[in-house]
Amino acid sequence: MAEPVKIKIWSDYVCPFCMLAEGPLEEAIKDVGGEVEVEWMPFELRPHPQPTLRPEDEYLPSIWERAVYPMARRLGVDITLPAVSPQPYTALAFEGYQYAAEHGLGTAYNQRMFRAFFQENQDLGQIDVLVALAGGIGLDEAGFRAALTDGTYRARHEEALREAAAHRVQSVPTMLVGDIRIEGVPRPAQLRKAILDARAQQAEGVVYGASCGIDGSC
């Protein structure tokens, strides 16, 4: 059986384009069929102590009117510039992601973070908010809170950030589809092609000859 195509996606919870990338990704995977493994990877656009952005300043409303809202309308996504000011640091939320991923709910957690921020105006920098959101997707709230309070997953998050640096990620979303790199929100057709090309590259790396299988057949 062929190995699944692996897709890594670097994102930040305060990046609207990362949320908008979900639709094209799901559409492309559905269209190509076969096995595809998606792994969401953390990337902090503005790590502490760098100041985060404020929605009342000129930059955010401008970029949303010029780029975010037109793309959201085209993709049919309900998304609004959050009024949370200043925007939250996302390190703590990403430590929560590591907890969720370990408990098999990493993708659900990511989706919940995006919707909480961009559709519900929730402050992802507050531990009480994160705990409630985690509980809402089925995670143990007490265990989740203890993990964030104790910094249980801090080292794992920092290791993930080092991986982003090793791949020279400087903007999000950035995707690796096998060895094919895509920066920005992809078109479904573009992503489909990347998945199929990655699948073909994997197939080319396998040479088939006479063999015996684990079931005893030769």
Automatic annotation (TrEMBL):
InterPro entries: DSBA-like_thioredoxin_dom (IPR001853), Thioredoxin-like_sf (IPR036249). PANTHER family: GLUTATHIONE S-TRANSFERASE KAPPA (PTHR13887), ISOMERASE (PTHR13887:SF33). This is DsbA family oxidoreductase. SUPFAM superfamilies: Thioredoxin-like. Residues 7-195 form the DSBA-like thioredoxin domain. It comes from Streptomyces anulatus (Streptomyces chrysomallus). Gene3D superfamilies: Glutaredoxin. Coiled coil: none annotated. CDD domains: DsbA_FrnE. Pfam families: DSBA. It comes from the Bacteria.
